[in-house]
């Protein structure tokens, strides 16, 4: 049995119930097989065993009182996965589906994603099974404050720097930062990213993941001497990521034709390409209703209940932008049948393993850890601006983001080619990220 497979077998025997984490670990480690078998230093230092175990896992209860005076109890988590190249960095997710397995998968992926940006950031993730949908403003503020009262003991600008994620946007970051500042009695702007512009946030941070994904897709198409001009782009979700994709893809000449939510999906044949439509997406996100049908009612387009856009309409580029495993093998078959040229994950692990295998064998596939790295990249740029106590212009942030995504694309292709699997972005991303993190781990000894 190879070193990689012995590590995976051990992992599966210890955590058989952590399916999301096992899926992520299997995908990454299997792509590293040839690299780690070739060089004995990785096995001698037990690099893989150390990579798949978080440095620290924090679990805590969050009791709070709702507007009716009833006591509620949720669970809070922070998975501090790897700090070899910098302080832990990764978002906070508030959603009823949050489990430790989910956060371990997200934190593990974040280690490699952050390494690809070349910025000094380790990997981590956190959140809670709290559901902000349907909660009042007061309840959300109170929950954020209770959550941060415990989390603040474990984070800081040189230790762990959370950001937003699903269910945690600018409003929630504001409440979290306010409580951190109150409890710690100091203004550490770099402790949280995704902040408002009035207290240390970066221009373009809300758009960054979507913008970065579009920049990465443009680089993928460039390898085939194509551009986004005239391409039909299918997107899932309707949050910040989809919003950013809709804006940047439109600016680059594409037409974004779909959005989705828990209730189904909409298809807009005219394209989601106007200020009015982009602004309405923001209204949908802030409404707390979590339904995409509102868009159909507002703009007179067709709504497909309990459906996914990948099965409804032909598209040149598919960008899953909502949750993990949202595009399965059946969806992939429909995309291929309808002439799709690129699938790029703006969500983390957006495609199932079966879908990835099918897509990768036939068309270009961009993995989430590379495609959606724009969000954490601009978070890193926000940290830099906080450190020098300056804010950059939108053009400067956008130029830096564009360069980072071009560089990530190049790293993926170069690493894949050196591994003898030219054009395999998934393998290239895993190898490039691993080489950077493992080099730092080896240099720092057994810690």
Walk me through what this model shows.
- By secondary structure, the chain is an alpha/beta fold.
- It has three domains: 1-51, no CATH class; 54-188, Leucine Dehydrogenase, chain A, domain 1 (Rossmann fold, 3-Layer(aba) Sandwich), CATH 3.40.50; 208-371, NAD(P)-binding Rossmann-like Domain (Rossmann fold, 3-Layer(aba) Sandwich), CATH 3.40.50.
- The chain is built from 18 helices and 13 strands.
- The strands form three sheets. A five-stranded mixed sheet has the order 1-2-4-3-5, sandwiched between helices.
- The two termini are 27 Å apart.
Q: Secondary structure elements and their pairing?
A:
Elements: H1 3-14, H2 19-31, H3 33-38, H4 40-44, H5 47-52, E1 56-65, E2 71-82, E3 88-94, H6 100-117, E4 123-128, H7 137-151, E5 160-163, H8 170-184, H9 208-222, E6 232-235, H10 240-251, E7 255-256, E8 258-261, E9 264-267, H11 275-287, H12 293-299, E10 302-305, E11 317-319, H13 329-337, E12 342-344, H14 353-362, E13 364-366, H15 368-371, H16 374-388, H17 394-418, H18 425-443
Parallel strand pairs: 3-4, 3-5, 6-7, 6-11, 11-12, 12-13
Antiparallel strand pairs: 1-2, 2-4, 8-9, 9-10
């Amino acid at each position: 049995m190879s070193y990689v497979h012995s590590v995976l077998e051990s992992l599966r025997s210890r955590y058989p119930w952590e399916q999301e984490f096992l899926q992520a670990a299997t995908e990454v480690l299997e792509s590293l097989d040839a690299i780690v078998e070739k060089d004995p230093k990785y096995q001698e230092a037990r690099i893989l065993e150390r990579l798949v175990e978080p440095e620290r896992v924090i679990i805590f209860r969050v009791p709070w009182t709702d507007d009716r005076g009833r006591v509620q109890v949720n669970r809070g988590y922070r998975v501090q996965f790897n700090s070899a190249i910098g302080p832990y960095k990764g978002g906070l997710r508030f959603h009823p589906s949050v489990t430790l397995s989910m956060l371990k998968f997200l934190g593990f992926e974040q280690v490699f994603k952050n390494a690809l940006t070349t910025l000094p950031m380790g990997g981590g993730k956190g959140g809670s099974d709290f559901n902000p949908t349907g909660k009042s403003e007061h309840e959300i503020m109170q929950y954020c404050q209770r959550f941060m009262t415990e989390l603040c003991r474990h984070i800081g600008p040189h230790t762990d720097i959370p950001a937003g994620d699903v269910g945690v946007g600018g409003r929630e970051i504001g409440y979290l930062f306010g409580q951190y500042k109150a409890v710690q009695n100091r203004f550490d702007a770099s402790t949280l990213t995704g902040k408002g512009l009035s207290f240390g946030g970066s221009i373009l941070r809300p758009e960054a993941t979507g913008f970065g994904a579009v920049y990465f897709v443009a680089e993928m198409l460039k390898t085939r001497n194509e551009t986004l001009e005239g391409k039909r782009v299918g997107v899932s979700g309707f949050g910040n990521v989809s919003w950013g994709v809709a804006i940047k893809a439109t600016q680059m000449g594409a037409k974004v034709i779909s959005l989705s939510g828990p209730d189904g999906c909409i298809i807009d044949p005219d394209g989601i390409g106007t200020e009015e439509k982009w602004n309405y997406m923001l209204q949908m996100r802030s409404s707390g209703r979590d339904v995409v049908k509102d868009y159909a009612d507002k703009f007179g387009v067709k709504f497909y209940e309990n459906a996914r856009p990948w099965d409804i309409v032909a598209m040149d580029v598919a960008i899953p932008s909502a949750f993990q495993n949202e595009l399965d093998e059946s969806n992939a078959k429909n995309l291929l049948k309808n002439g799709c040229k690129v699938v790029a994950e703006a969500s983390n692990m957006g495609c199932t393993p079966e879908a990835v295998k099918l897509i990768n064998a036939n068309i270009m596939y961009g993995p989430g850890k590379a495609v959606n790295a724009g969000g954490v990249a601009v978070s890193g740029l926000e940290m830099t601006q906080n450190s020098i106590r300056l804010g950059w212009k939108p053009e400067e942030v956008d130029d830096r983001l564009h360069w980072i995504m071009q560089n990530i694309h190049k790293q993926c292709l170069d690493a894949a080619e050196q591994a003898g699997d030219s054009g395999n972005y998934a393998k290239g991303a895993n190898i490039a990220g691993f080489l950077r993190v493992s080099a730092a781990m080896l240099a720092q000894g057994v810690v």
